[in-house]
Design goal:
The complex is a heterodimer of chains A (about 350) and B (about 325).
Chain A (H helix, E strand, L loop, with lengths): L35 H26 L13 H14 L2 E4 L5 H6 L4 H9 L16 E3 L4 E3 L6 H16 L4 E7 L6 H12 L4 E7 L2 E2 L2 E2 H4 L16 E5 L3 H18 L2 E6 L20 H6 L3 H11 L5 H24 L16
Chain B lengths: L1 E4 H15 L3 E5 L15 H5 L4 E3 L4 H13 L3 E5 L10 H14 L9 E6 L14 H5 L5 E3 L4 H13 L4 E6 L2 H4 L1 E4 L12 E4 L4 E5 L2 H14 L5 E5 L2 E3 L3 H11 L2 E8 L4 H12 L9 E5 L9 H7 L3 H13 L1
Parallel strand pairs in B: 2-3, 2-4, 5-7, 6-7, 10-11, 10-13, 13-14
Antiparallel strand pairs in B: 1-8, 6-12, 9-11
Helix pairs in contact in B: 1-6, 3-4, 8-12, 9-10
The chains are: A alpha/beta (about 350), B alpha/beta (about 325).
The structure holds thiamine diphosphate and magnesium ion.
Thiamine diphosphate (TPP) binds next to strand 6 of chain A.
Chain lengths: ~350, ~325
Amino acid sequence: MARPRSTPTKKPPTKRPAGAKPVQDSAAGLPGGLTTDDLVDYYKKMVMVRLVDERIWALNRQGKVPIAASCQGHEAAQLGSLLAAEKDGNCFLFPYYRDLAVKMSAGLTAEQVMLSFMGKEGEPYSNARQFPLQGADLPNKVIQISNVVAAGLTQSVGYALACTMLGDHTVVLVYFGDGASSQGETHEAMNFAGVHRLPVIFICENNGYAISVPQRRQMNLDDLASRAAGYGFPGFVVDGMDLVQCYEATHHAISHARQQGPVLLEMKVDRFMPHTTDDDDRRYRPKGEVEEARKRDPVVTMAEDLVHRGIITRKQVEEIAALALREVDAATDAADAASPPGASSLHEMVYVP
Amino acid sequence: MAVVSVIEAVREAIREEMRRDSNVFVLGEDVGQRGGVFLATQGLLEEFGGERVIDTPLAEAAIMGIALGAAYRGMRPIPEVQFSDFVWPAVNQLIGEAARVCYGTHGSLNVPMVVRIPYGGGIRGGLFHSQNVEAMFFHTPGLKVIAPATPFDAKGLLKSAIRDNNPVISLEHKKTYRLVRGEVPEDEYTLPIGKADIKRPGESITTVSYGLMLHYCLEAAEQVSQEGIDVEVVDLRTLKPLDKETVVESVKKTGRLLIVHEDNITGGVGAEVAAVAAAEAFEFLDAPIARLCGPDVPTMPFAETLESAYMPSTETVAVALRNLAAY
Ligand SMILES: Cc1ncc(C[n+]2csc(CCOP(=O)(O)OP(=O)(O)O)c2C)c(N)n1
Ligand SMILES: [Mg+2]
């Protein structure tokens, strides 16, 4: 069963803000505010995330990482939106369990990520009480309390409500899957955000599957973005395999959210790996579907694009990968050598004073 | 000292805390313009405005999730659940999420929120306007649960709950709202969460109860006192954390324990109280621990006969006390 893959029905606004000028020749065609340095920087992040993701999967097979959800195939959506948030400088993130690229690139080192996946002391999100990178990373403005899909959506709306009450102009980005979109709380969150015109961007990473259930069994729709109309705010379909498009859509969504209220961005992505390390996707994915999807692997296409534009050379592409690999190796070793939290901490922090 | 009803005490507690701390706000169904279906928030919209007294869409999971999210940002939300019977759609946000925030972030986040829940029967509310929901919250680490029975306790405990940095479930027995009146000091005061109160000292039997049942215990104690049975009436006031010490000390003194609640008997708060007393005051017991609780049927039914058959009453408490004294 091939997933229904639609062409975007609506495009996000692409108007360049008045006064912004193109950066350099190699940046021709880049949306406003984006520089070639940004692209190189985020390409490096993408390579790093991919290597970490692959390493985690391997460590699972070695029995060192109990569980992982891979973000392979989602990197452009996650990093494109994060780049817009970083440039804005006043965004708060409510990602979900597949958002390794968001959480890591928001400010964690490879070693912190490895500590988290191996359940070691000092892990930044929960001190190893929760699944990897779940809990809160407040220094980097990230909260993801639970695995319960869509539970974070109403919370993110409440966070935005509080920011509005306090007048601090924060924009909240909340991420979720196509599967989570079927939850009642997704509806409740969007409805409330619409009523109060809160500064929230709902980012659906639509990979066409909720574990094994394909989109056509989840919704009678091609484009989930069209649901936004039911809440009285705009929704856009975005090519989630293209970092620049994801950046641009999020960049515009941020200013819209701050001035006029919520936006729904449906980023169409592909899941390259099984649902988690515990899943076997051969039981439900049609033969050849993943191979076909991998032809648009964002790590490869971004490298090609940067080389094509003359922003980096092929040699630099190799150097970036080699450097990242060394860092991932060192991070793996350090986390492997670290200790898990002492059993006596079991009773800590059930309550705060 | 002014004499006020429980609902007035609740309203005053919220009003005072909203005046004291601009981060405190109220949200829920009909809490604004109407002042809540029980009028607990009457007058707050006029005083504090629509930003701090929010009439929400009719969606309990959203009310709770939004309160949580606002608490992450440092606000002190007071979400209202219109009736306990409608808390179920929000249970994931309370038990699944709120209770685990502090533990699941190793303390980097916490939830200063008070969930106000009118609950309980004896008001001809039937299966969906009478429910006792305390056992579920009582069972959940990470939550605190208060269940006051008098205006004085309601005000003092609610103010403490609003200042508490953890999620607190405030169970307000609907039948006490207007029925129970009592003195409340003019001056500012708070009461400690987690401390039971001996509402009537006595020597021969301990009753442990909370909410509406506390009043039935007091009335029954008065009745049997004429027969020479001297009952000590312990009001838990807070269910979680349970004040084991007060219960155990009282049982050690009297040697007899009757637990009374209207919630279903199986797995109720009383089961835990009984276990604590059995474990920590075993040598002092002169009779088996007795429980007078709601039977294991889903909530008190609507028909007068059936509701009365479900609810413990002053009369049934008195009978249980006589039986225990005679053992
Ligand atoms: C409320 C709830 N029900 C079930 C699950 C188990 N579960 C975890 S992920 C998942 C599928 C989610 O799919 P989607 O939202 O599309 O995200 P994706 O994994 O595809 O990125 C399910 C059923 C859960 N975590 N939460
Ligand atoms: Mg999916």
